[in-house]
Amino acid sequence: MQPIQLFDPESSTCTYILRAARGNEAVIIDPVDRQWERDLQQLQRLGLTLVAILETHAHADHITSAGQLRQVTGARAAAPAACGIAPADLQLQDGDVIRFGDGEEIRVLHTPGHTAGSMSYVWRGNAFTGDALLIDGCGRTDFQGGSAEALYDSVTGKLFTLPPETLVWPAHDYKGRAASTIGWEREHNSRLAHRDRADFVDLMGRLDLPKPRLLEVAVPANRNLGLPQG
């Protein structure tokens, strides 16, 4: 089974729908507020019942639709415990397993570095890596408790130890690419492949990237599942 990948062109965010092999239950990962109707229509078109909404972290470049989808569908919202997303129904820890459908299991991996709480999810030979591991790149590490040291350890110590044929589905791509593999990224990723920890930390420290345009708006909103505060 492969996920259904949906794309928000404004933030270059990838949203994923995971379908159970048996039954009609589904899970969505990293939905975007302005695309919630599209996502709901896609679920309805396929006859799927949404049972869980997963966040890889509190994004800084778009607002999630997790709260809105929860209100409409009754699905549970799940978020990394260390991201401060208090309204989430499930506060995820490393090693947790999310179950849906008839025997479907999503393994939860704590992969901090882009943010302190970032999580990746592994399901049926697919790794949903958030901003920890991108196609031929990785997420920045200079805000929200980010750490280049932690990101290097997360990717090399957890993600790169997955089977090489594991498909990599990132939270963002800016060049029109859909997916990669752990094996390819381990050998060719321009930021991580064949670098030691000190070299990677030095590289990340020299990026000097501008702050995301929506940082001050998106992070507080996403810590409330994208719903209005107060």
SSE blueprint:
Layout: E1 4-8, E2 13-19, E3 25-29, H1 36-45, E4 49-54, H2 66-73, E5 76-80, E6 90-92, E7 97-100, E8 104-110, E9 119-123, E10 126-130, H3 148-157, E11 167-170, E12 180-181, H4 182-188, H5 197-205, H6 215-222
Parallel strand pairs: 3-4, 4-5, 5-6, 10-11
Antiparallel strand pairs: 1-2, 2-3, 7-8, 8-9, 9-10, 11-12
Helix pairs in contact: 3-5
InterPro entries: Metallo-B-lactamas, Mito_Persulfide_Diox, POD-like_MBL-fold, RibonucZ/Hydroxyglut_hydro
Pfam families: Lactamase_B
Keywords: Hydrolase, Metal-binding
Approximate strand percentage: 25-35%
Query: From the coordinates shown, what is the CATH architecture?
Result: 4-Layer Sandwich
- Following the backbone from N to C, one meets helices and strands in this order, namely EEEHEHEEEEEEHEEHHH
How do the strands of the widest beta sheet line up side by side? 1-2-3-4-5-6
Number of strands: 12
Question: Overall mean pLDDT score?
Answer: 97
Looking at CATH, the homologous superfamily is: Ribonuclease Z/Hydroxyacylglutathione hydrolase-like
Number of helices: 6
What is the 3D shape? globular
- Class inferred from helices and paired strands: alpha/beta
Integer count of domains: 1
Contiguous runs where pLDDT drops below 50 for at least 5 residues: none
Q: Biggest β-sheet, characterized?
A: 6 strands, mixed
Integer-rounded radius of gyration:
16 Å
The N- and C-terminal alpha carbons lie at a distance of 41 Å
GO molecular function, one term: hydrolase activity
Domain Metallo-beta-lactamase: 11-172
Protein name: Zn-dependent hydrolase
Keywords: Hydrolase, Metal-binding
